[in-house]
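Lab notebook, entry 426. We have the chain sequence and a SMILES string for flavin-adenine dinucleotide, and the next step in the workflow is to get a structural model of the bound complex before anyone spends time on docking refinements. Request logged below.

Task: model protein plus flavin-adenine dinucleotide, output structure tokens.
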Amino acid sequence: MYINVPEVKVPRVVIIGCGFGGLELVKQLSKIEVQIVLIDKNNYHTFQPLLYQVSTAGLEADSIAYPIRKIFKGQKNFHFRMGEVQQLVSEENKLITSIGEIKYDYLIIATGSTTNYFGIKDFEEHAMPMKSVTEALDLRSLILQNFEKALLIKDLHEQEALMTFAVVGGGPTGVELAGALCELKKHVLPNDYPELDFRKMRVVLIENGGELLQAMNEINRKRANTYLDELGCEVWLNTGVAKYDGSVVEMKSGKQLLTSGLIWAAGIKAVLIDGLNKESINARGRIIIDDYCKVKSYENIFAIGDAACMVQEKFRNGHPQIAPVAIQQAQLVASNLKKSLKQCAPDKFSYFDKGTMATVGRNRAVVEVGNFTFGRFFGWLAWMGLHLMLLVGFRNRVVVFINWVWSYINYDRNIRLIIRPFKKGG
Ligand SMILES: Cc1cc2nc3c(=O)[nH]c(=O)nc-3n(C[C@H](O)[C@H](O)[C@H](O)COP(=O)(O)OP(=O)(O)OC[C@H]3O[C@@H](n4cnc5c(N)ncnc54)[C@H](O)[C@@H]3O)c2cc1C
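Result returned:
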């Protein structure tokens, strides 16, 4: 059965995924003589950089998620279908999805990435990921449930495990999450749970390498360490994790940490579509694309963003898996599609690095733009300004801004709600 989409005479461009890449692509294709069919398993776009604020009760989930139909309201050549793409049948230019089949003239894969546990079953089973809105909500519930349980328990070891949070992975996500957990410890949770001794609450950031924020320069790496130290976060560098049973995590060195809140921010892997040729997937599991984002061994299939890997002189292992890469690749694919319809030669991709930033609790962030770096309060202001600007939807920007101002003045987090209790195993 085919998905019900009007048959038209112009080429059909099917896009899988409405993340940063897919969303930008639809916008850029709006004025081109093509039919756009966007398929996503969710009916909303997620602003992943603020997921950690949903996890730590700083923002409502619907402040960082935006309905896809609303984003493209009124766009004439556009059709959205909510469903999960299951298989590519390239010989027939066809996709099989959970809602039926669909033919394409051009296919763009923008499926992003998911958590990578590197095959370590223990962590897959017991650790908390934070890659989607539902996972962020689960994490929020777990954090709050742990404190509710800690109140009921007399056993000191069990209480210690419930009040200790370990974040594995010292990249931007790990650093931001650890900072936010420390803020909860300092300003929020002691008011809710006055019967608990918050000197016992620990936030431990565990990093396998010798430094945090390895993609940033040395000044900012040191800054991040200092800021976390000021917030009371324990940073364990050069520490690989080996085993975890849900209450004790064992390091490769044999050292142990009692925690029933272990958050995995240590790696991601591309989300692939079954049916892609083996030769189009690299050793790290990303889709191999050329300078034009065209997938290796296909003529009319493109891939962009986290799922794809383009090797260029300055990027021997592909570009970083961050939003600006997905957005810029989407812009290139749209512009080349326009050119190909006019029989013009396509352009090659050239990444324009606008800089990187990460926030560490309130008043502190590290920012890097070219050779220029800054931190602390000005970094934090820059971080807030940029994230507000990038959020989709005016309402979301206003809601997030009000929330941030409120939290700043009151040292409070309003959304300490266990709406959907988290239960391991679903
Ligand atoms: C916690 C966190 C913090 C981050 N912080 C930053 C940051 O500060 N700055 C930054 O630049 N980047 C950040 N990133 C990375 C950034 O979010 C990604 O690089 C970006 O989202 C990649 O865009 P994308 O379009 O490739 O994929 P995504 O944005 O992940 O979108 C993929 C879409 O595909 C859909 N999908 C997947 N599989 C299927 C399927 N089979 N069928 C249908 N739909 C499917 C998904 O539902 C999703 O909507 C962060 C990521 C996380 C997780």
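Notes for the group: The chain has two domains: 12-41+83-115+269-341, 121-266+362-410. Worth checking against the assay data. Residues 395 and 420 are 25 Å apart (CA to CA).
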